[in-house]
């Protein structure tokens, strides 16, 4: 496993560079939007990766609720945190695309609003984990995650079943994406998925280390308190 | 190329790099704290001594072996992975008491500083040649989560009190 991490890091760096080259140079220029459409190759893969991470958070939270498994709790925390980072990218790149195309940075469109709510739910999840000192924090967080995950399908399918200003789905749902664009989109998604795995892996190790350090600090405190008695 | 495009790509990597730098700063801080915790505190060594003093009188009690198991786990958390000859010695003399506790073991090939500390401070253990000849090391891997409370409770269960100042069980 120790060797796998640097290998994955190198592979991810190569894949991200290749994906960037594909997005900037190989993908055809969209007829009406021009080059600004290429934001799509970062925006959409980031959104899909965020959805997958929130799904992972949901599954890990359910496992934690059933088994009270510490590893599941750490996976839930890590996937939510990295998911929020990817969701932040979505919320930042979306308005940068919207300004030249729609003429506005933001509109309270259903898809956009639900995505912002999704981000807020998982930020509140992380705030709960960060600032609650209760022993029940993982349990409360797991319950919040289960309810929070309900927003993921709402966000995803909002452009399928409702008329919104956000563009219609490009894959499935009657979308007609140029096959060359579709290929570049999938390459970018693969690159961002590898990157997400790498970041989650690093964050998992940091969380394990943090728990060990805190546990030892607690034990030392206990030792000292026994000595002081 | 469009400036909005570059702004979006740059913003993406600013977000990711900001997060990664936060994670790596936290990792560096935790590593420093973890390394500081590696040194065995005096209280711990005193507790080892105190428990080993108890050994002759109580080696057949389950609570004693639980205490030893907890202690070894504490040592492992502090970076000392093996408990070696001491555990084998205990196993060799306890007629299955350890296995009755349902504790699991894993074989490790390292003789650690922890073992050296114990052996240096308790030379009597060196007398058991049959243990030393057997080679290999064994470490406890299964333990009570609230092991230190268990340890202190165990001592108190025997009507005793551990004094961390003198390092003796009174």
Structural descriptors:
heterodimer, A: 229 residues, mainly alpha, 78% helix, 0% strand, globular, disordered C terminus, B: 170 residues, 2 domains, two-stranded antiparallel sheet, 8 helices, 4 strands
Explain briefly what this protein structure is.
The complex is a heterodimer of chains A (229) and B (170). Chain A has helices spanning 4-26, 40-67, 70-102, 110-131, 137-148, 151-161, 179-228.
Please tell me about this protein's structure.
The complex is a heterodimer of chains A (229) and B (170). Chain A has 229 residues and is mainly alpha-helical. Chain A has one domain. Chain A contains seven helices and no strands. Chain A has helices at 4-26, 40-67, 70-102, 110-131, 137-148, 151-161, 179-228. In chain A, helix 2 packs across helix 5, helix 3 (70-102) packs across helix 7 (179-228) and helix 4 runs antiparallel to helix 6. With 170 residues, chain B is mostly helical. Chain B folds into two domains: 1-39; 41-157, no CATH class. Chain B has helices spanning 3-37, 42-58, 62-77, 84-93, 97-100, 113-121, 129-134, 147-157; strands spanning 105-108, 137-140, 162-163, 168-169. In chain B, the strands form two sheets. A two-stranded antiparallel ribbon of chain B has the order 1-2. A two-stranded antiparallel ribbon of chain B has the order 3-4. In chain B, helix 2 (42-58) runs antiparallel to helix 3. The model of chain B is unreliable at 55-63 and 78-150 (pLDDT under 50). Chain A binds chain B through residues 20, 24, 34-36, 38-39, 42-43, 46, 82, 85, 88-89, 92-93, 96-97, 99-100, 195, 199, 202-203, 205-206, 209-210, 212-213, 215-217, 219-220, 222-224, 226-227, and chain B through 1-2, 4-5, 7-9, 11-12, 15-16, 19-20, 23, 26-27, 30-31, 33-34, 37, 41, 43-44, 74, 77-78, 148-149, 152, 162, 164-165.
């Amino acid at each position: 496993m120790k060797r796998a991490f640097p290998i994955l890091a190198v592979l991810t760096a190569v894949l991200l560079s290749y994906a960037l080259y594909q997005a900037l140079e190989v993908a055809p220029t969209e007829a009406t939007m021009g080059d600004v459409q290429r934001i799509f190759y970062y925006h959409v893969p980031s959104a899909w990766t965020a959805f997958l991470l929130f799904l992972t958070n949901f599954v890990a939270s359910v496992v934690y609720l059933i088994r009270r498994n510490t590893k599941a709790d750490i996976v839930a925390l890590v996937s939510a945190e990295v998911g929020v980072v990817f969701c932040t990218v979505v919320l930042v790149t979306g308005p940068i695309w919207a300004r030249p195309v729609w003429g506005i940075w933001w509109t309270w469109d259903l898809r956009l609003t639900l995505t912002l709510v999704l981000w807020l739910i998982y930020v509140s999840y992380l705030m709960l984990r960060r600032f609650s000192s209760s022993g029940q924090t993982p349990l409360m967080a797991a319950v919040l995650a289960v309810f929070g995950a309900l927003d993921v399908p709402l966000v995803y399918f909002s452009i399928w079943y409702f008329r919104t200003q956000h563009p219609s789905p490009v894959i499935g749902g009657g979308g007609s994406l140029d096959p060359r664009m579709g290929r570049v989109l999938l390459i970018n998604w693969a690159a961002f998925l590898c990157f997400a795995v790498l970041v989650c892996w690093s964050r998992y190790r940091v969380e394990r280390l943090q728990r060990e350090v805190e546990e030892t600090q607690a034990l030392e405190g206990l030792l000292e308190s026994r000595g002081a008695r | 190329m469009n400036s909005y495009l570059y702004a979006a790509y740059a913003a993406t990597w600013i977000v990711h790099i900001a997060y990664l730098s936060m994670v790596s700063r936290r990792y560096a801080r935790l590593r420093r704290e973890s390394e500081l915790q590696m040194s065995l505190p005096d209280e711990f060594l005193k507790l080892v001594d105190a428990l080993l003093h108890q050994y002759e009188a109580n080696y057949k009690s389950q609570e004693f072996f639980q205490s030893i198991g907890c202690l070894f786990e504490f040592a492992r958390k502090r970076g000392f992975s093996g408990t070696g000859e001491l555990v084998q010695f205990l196993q060799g003399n306890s007629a299955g008491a350890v296995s009755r506790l349902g504790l699991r073991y894993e074989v490790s090939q390292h003789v650690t500083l922890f073992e050296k500390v114990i052996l240096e401070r308790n030379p009597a253990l060196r007398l058991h040649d049959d243990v030393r000849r057997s080679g290999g090391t064994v470490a406890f891997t299964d333990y009570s989560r609230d092991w230190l409370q268990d340890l202190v409770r165990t001592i108190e269960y025997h009507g005793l009190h551990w004094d961390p100042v003198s390092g003796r069980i009174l």
